[in-house]
Specification:
It is a single chain. The protein is mainly beta and 226 residues long. The chain is built from 4 helices and 18 strands. The strands form 5 sheets. It has a 6-stranded mixed beta sheet with strand order 4-3-15-8-9-12, covered by helices on one side. A 5-stranded mixed beta sheet has the order 6-18-17-13-14, with no helix packed on it. The model has no long low-confidence stretch (mean pLDDT 94).
Amino acid sequence: MTTYAFPPPVQPSVPVEGSEAVFPVRRILCVGRNYAAHRAEMGGDERDPPFFFAKPADAIAPLMNDVPYPPRTADLHHEIELVVALKSGGANIAVDDALDHVFGYAVGVDLTRRDLQGAAKAKGHPWEAGKAFDFSAPISAIRPAADATFDGAIWLTVNGVQRQTGLVSDMIWNIPEIIAEASKLWTLAAGDLIFTGTPEGVAAVVKGDEIAGEVDGVGALAFTLV
């Protein structure tokens, strides 16, 4: 029997739609600039392949009505995303086999301290302070893959005003390709979440803003920054 020096932290998890079960989160991988229009608004070259960054598992903020506005930023941005939840994994997964590893899908928001991210980029430093902070990954319940479709619209509003809109089919890399590429860099496993990128229209939000987003066929989420 293992004796811990202190009680281990609570396992981060996300509710599963239509079930009392929860999905234990192992880690969170995110794809950057996976929609051409967003890549253009961020100053990227559409010929560049998408890239990955990570958030810690405890950055997850499932079904939270109130999400804390983070410290040390004056430029917090929203990024609505389709999230893929894995039930299994491996290394060097073939594109044709990738969907066999999917447990389900969810709607997520990648909250970003854009000013800290920009400062890190300018100095060639890592992005963790801009991307991987507490409560930086609000997420809906996970819809099992058999009950989900993900080729429809993706959108986000702030205080009822539309900010982001697009189609999941607008992604430069599709879901099987994302899983396959990620598995070349990491050995994927059950419990991994992959945020698949955001369409154009990212912008700043402030305390008191009401944020709502949806992916057709997957679900919706809504929260207030406090």
